[in-house]
Structure formats: C-alpha cells, structure tokens
Amino acid sequence: MSSAGDPDSSVVSTGVSINSSSDSSGGTAGGSSTNYFSDYETVPRSLDNSLTTEEAKYNYFEKMFSELSGDSTVELTGDFTGDDLCTLEASIICSDEPFIYNINLDLTSVTGLTSLNEQTFYYIDNLTGITLPDTVTEIGVSAFEGCTNLKSVTLPEGITSIPEKAFKGCTNLTSINIPDTVTEIGVSAFEGCASLTSVTLPGGITSIPEKAFCNCKSLKSIDIPDTVTEIGVSVFEGCNNLTSVTLPKGITSIPEKAFFTCTKLTNIALPEGITTIARDAFRSCSSLTSINIPNGVTEIGEFAFNLCNNLTSINIPDKVTKIGESAFHGCSSLTSIVLPSGITSIDEKTFFGCSTLTSITIPENVEIPDSAIEKCPSNLIITYYKPNETK
C-alpha cells in the first residue's frame, strides 16, 4: 500500500503555492464579488488513477488532508466518480485532527464526475466552499446537509433538481445560484440555512415543497416565478426577517404554517385563486398590519392569524363558511370585524384576547361561545343582521 499512502509528486508537479489573489471559486454563488478564500493556500492535487481499491484511495486522501497546514483551496484533478468523493469525505472525517483547518474544494477540472451520491459531504464541518464541474447533472439527497461552515456553492447548469435536505443545516451559506435548468426543489432543501439572505427561483419550478426554506432566519426576499402553483406546509416557517412576499396567481391555498413566525412580514399579496387559509398559516406574524383575503376563500383554519398582534383590519369574504378555533386569538390591535352570512357557528376562542375589539357584526341566529370573546373589552358591541340585509 505504499503507493496509496503518498500523493505522487510526479503527478503533482506544481506542489503547494500561496494564493495571493482570487482563486477560481472565490466568489459567492449568485454573482457576488465577495471572496471568502483569498487568504487560503492553493493546494493542487490529482487522484492517482492507478489506485483501484477503495482502501488505497482512502489512504491517499487521508494522507493528502493530513498534510494541509491550514485553510486551503484544494484543486483536484483526475478521473473521479461519486463513490470517490464519498471516500474523500470519509477520509476528512476520519483524519486524526479533522477540523483544525477549513477546506474549499475546487472540482472544476476533475473528469468523469456526473453526480454526487446521497450524503456525499454529510456534516463535514470544515468544508467552506465547493465548485462543481460542468459535467455534474445530479446531486443526491442530503449531499451537503449539516455543512455548517459552507459559505459558497457554485452549481453547474444542467442540474435539474435540488433534492431533499440537500443543503439542510448549512447555517453559514449566505447565497446560492440555482441554475435555470432546475425544475424541482425537494422537501427541506434549504431548511435551517440561517445566513441565506435572498433567493431567486428559476422559471421552470412549479412547486415549493414542505419546509423548503423553513428557519432561513436571515432571508429577506425571495423571487417566486409565475410558474409556481403550490407551496408546502411550513415552507417559510421561522423566516423572521422576511418582510414581503408576492405569491403567483396560480396558487390556490395557503398551507399549514406556511408563514408561521414570520415576525417581520408586513406585506403579502394573496392571489385571487386562493380558496383556503390553513391552520397556523400566519400565526405569530406580529408585524402584519392588514391583509386582503380574496373573495374565493371559503375557510380560515384554526390559529390562522393567532398572535398577529399588530393586525388592525381584515376583510372576511362572503364565501367564507368556516372560521376555525382561535383563528384571531391574540389579535390585540383588531378593532372591528364583520362576519359573512355563510357563517353558521363561531368556534371556541375565535377572538380570545382581542383586547381592542369593540365591534363584531354577525348573522342572526349565530351563537357566540363565551370563550370566543373572552378577554375582549367590556364595551364590545355585537350587532346581528339578517342574511339578506346590508351589513
């Protein structure tokens, strides 16, 4: 195994050099001029293709990483497969002191690499950047999950899918280019990317699935193309710096917890095709002051606007027939509300804690349970009307 233990100096003719200017992958994905890696050593290394066993390659990579003296841009060349990258990842994890340096991987010049396996770089804490070659068209589930120091990723054109949990928990990822060829984003693809500030989705995407951007706590803006017709449960939950969202006209429902705890959301335009606002959809959106509910909405779910304590006005369309329990619980700035004629009952705690609510207008014969108006002002006036009367 002696040939496996040492990077071949005849293959690596340029040795180690100090990079005093921008390296090839120094910019952030998405076109920013920020260079995270300008002070990294540039370390050219080539995979010795005479190594045929996984053990030999593992020993080769382990020796290579053990010789790094500090933060390094590792420029890899040679013929690579997805399995080779998994072997490389294992050698980083199993090194005697794996996290004393940071690694920026430049794979631009490798050959033969068409895909990244599932969990290729799973929880590699010292991976700070990666540039993939143009030959890569597929990345696996959880490929970069848990890479908490990953700042920069360059994805090549040709990739069609960002799979489930691909970048989940990449807490230092500030930006990412999503190629125009991408048509699908997986569940939790960017969940917990707490430093991601903005995202532009390509025009071929038709849905944004469950938890895709959940807990992206620094996300301030997202450009959603008109092709999107569906958003998933908790898709933007915990995005507490998101201030404004425009949803495409093809979307027909706001799912459960879609904007839960988006505490800085002040403005959202709901498309006219919306028919349902689900449970917890806008719960704890404490900066939301008003919202225009489209005329086609028939149901407002439980806790839908719970703790929207700056909400001062809301229209309830005529087609709404059901408002769930605690839907407006804790809306302490709401002063008046008119319920449409299709409402036949009011659930428990619907207006609980609406401490400035002084007027409710409802259809006759609809009973209000005590808990629905508990902790509302003592001067609250309830006005009843006949369904065919002007409210």
Uncertain residue ranges = 1-33
Give the tally of β-strands: 26
Helices and strands, in N-to-C order? HEEHEHEEEEEEEEEEEEEEEEEEEEEEE
Mean pLDDT: 87
Structural class: mainly beta
Strand content: 15-25%
Helix content: under 10%
What's the tally of helices?
A: 3
So what's the overall shape?
Answer: elongated
Overall radius of gyration: 27 Å
Sheet having the most strands: 7 strands, mixed
N-to-C CA distance: 87 Å
Structure write-up:
By secondary structure, the chain is mainly β. Helices cover 7% and strands 20% of the residues. It has three helices and 26 strands. The strands form nine sheets. Strands 1, 2, 3, 4, 5, 7 and 9 form a seven-stranded mixed sheet that branches. The protein has a four-stranded parallel sheet with strand order 17-19-21-23, with no helix packed on it. Helix 2 links the parallel strand 2 and strand 3. Helix 2 crosses helix 3. The chain is elongated. The N and C termini lie far apart (87 Å). The N terminus is likely disordered.
Compose a concise summary of this entry.
The protein has helices at 2-5, 54-66, 82-93; strands at residues 17-18, 41-46, 72-79, 103-106, 110-111, 115-116, 127-131, 138-139, 152-154, 161-162, 184-185, 198-200, 207-208, 221-223, 230-231, 244-246, 253-254, 267-269, 276-277, 290-291, 299-300, 313-314, 322-323, 336-338, 359-363, 381-385.
